[in-house]
Hints:
This protein starts with a helix and ends with a helix. A 5-stranded mixed β-barrel has the order 5-8-7-6-9, surrounded by 4 helices. It is α/β, with parallel strands linked by helices. It is globular and about 55 Å long. The protein has a single domain, classed as 3-Layer(aba) Sandwich (Rossmann fold), CATH 3.40.50.1580.
Amino acid sequence: MLKKIEEAAEFxxxxxxxxxxxxxxxxxGLGNLAKEIDTEKEIPYAEIPNFPVSTVEGHxxxxxxxxLNGVPVLAMQGRFHYYEGYDMKTVTFAVRVMHKIGIExxxxxxxxxxxxxxxxxxxxxxxxxxxxxxxENPLRGKNFDELGPRFPDMSEAYDVNLRKLAFQIxxxxxxxxxxxxxxxxxxxxxxxxxxxYRFFHRIGGDAVGMSTVPEVIVARHAGMKCFAISIIxxxxxxxxxxxxxxxxxxxxAAKSEPMMTLIFKELVKKI
Length: 271
């Protein structure tokens, strides 16, 4: 694994012209942030040694090297999911490569189902913590000390200072419906049953999705600071659960994406 990480990182480093410390992961229906990046290079995942390939509609599958709001960034337009059949080491491989390149801050986005009765479709939820319900932890197995400690601390998985900055940006730009909450990570690919929504909410969750948690675990293992936003694209509130499709999730995400994009653009300037 270490050799594979090194090979992929070296391939990408040769194509980066300036020091880059910010990595971005774009979730379902949220790839348009890439249009705001002044792109220097686009690399399809298939061209990167040892990289997996995203198979999900709404994830285009390329690495973007460029500047967002004048700040050098490395953006993943499309991520990898456990439900695609990958093991957790593969799901989080790109995060390992980012760290090897020199990324210190990881900004993530996702589309999620809301369980908090106060939420509305289109709400932006800044993640302040998560509950990991994936059947496998990406750190399971032999630990390599050069990647991080055997037992990493997760008391602040999502950086408190980055969260404060994001709320400040939202207030300064009059962005409505920005809240914070706990994200429940599940394996998917099914959307939740009404009973599952009730369970997830009762154990402390505000939103549920099929990504982000494994990437954050690996990023924190490596010492990277993390920030993540969920766009609430459907609701699983008790007695109000409605049918949902992947296409509807993409459409709902696209409507709120400009507000999320604005937060990301301003946040990278303040890091």
